[in-house]
Design goal:
Layout: H1 9-15, E1 24-26, H2 33-42, E2 48-51, H3 56-62, H4 67-75, H5 78-88, H6 92-103, E3 106-109, H7 112-121, E4 129-131, H8 143-157, E5 162-164, H9 175-186, E6 193-195
Parallel strand pairs: 1-2, 2-3, 3-4, 5-6
Length: 196
């Protein structure tokens, strides 16, 4: 019972009593082939689940340094998109996720949108894809206190429109684009607020 924390994959491979495990689940996509092979040799009897919090090939396409590539990609015919994806999947970093996908028996996604993207970028693994949203047990949370905090925040922000962004504040998430776009929208309802 309990959770064990490891400093690196080598500790996992050598430090776990694999016989007593029921399932292997990981969310790390950047393991080497040697590390993955070591894990697979010791746990071939276990179902291996991988949660794909992001798809490296999708992040590469949408990264600001590939802005020109992305503009061309969005309007390219399907065949050309396939060739572009295959080229990006040859990138050493992106291949680390390909190796994980190859080893996994199932790939979990938090949304059906993520599952659909996965099928687009990795059609050969589409049958491994499962959309399994992360749920929240509201009974475990102090909803009355949360409601009071929300009302206090609403009073502080005023009665105007509020655009709320929840997520990681990273360039590739497009937060800068959101701020720029909000400047255009803000003039329509002048009391609008952006909350990040």
């Amino acid at each position: 019972g309990g959770t064990r924390h490891f400093q690196n994959v080598g500790e996992v491979v050598n430090g776990i009593d694999w016989v007593n495990l029921a399932v292997l689940h990981n969310a790390a996509c950047t393991m080497s082939k040697t590390e993955l092979d070591g894990i697979e040799q010791r746990n071939s009897h276990l179902p291996h689940l991988y949660t794909a919090h992001s798809l490296l090939v999708h992040e590469a396409i949408n990264h600001p340094k590939y802005r020109e590539f992305k503009a061309h990609f969005d309007v390219a015919p399907e065949r050309e998109k396939r060739r572009s994806i295959e080229t990006l999947r040859k990138d050493k970093f992106v291949q680390s996720q390909d190796r994980t996908l190859e080893h996994a028996g199932a790939v979990l996604h938090m949304t059906s949108y993520g599952s659909g993207l996965f099928g687009f970028y990795y059609p050969e693994y589409a049958d491994k894809s499962i959309a399994l949203p992360h749920g929240t047990d509201f009974a475990k949370h102090d909803t009355q206190n949360a409601r009071q905090r929300a009302l206090a925040l609403r009073r502080e922000l005023g009665n105007g429109k509020v655009v709320l962004y929840t997520g990681r504040v990273l360039q590739e998430k497009g937060v800068g684009d959101l701020v720029d776009a909000f400047q255009l929208v803000k003039s329509t309802p002048p009391d609008a607020k952006l909350l990040i």
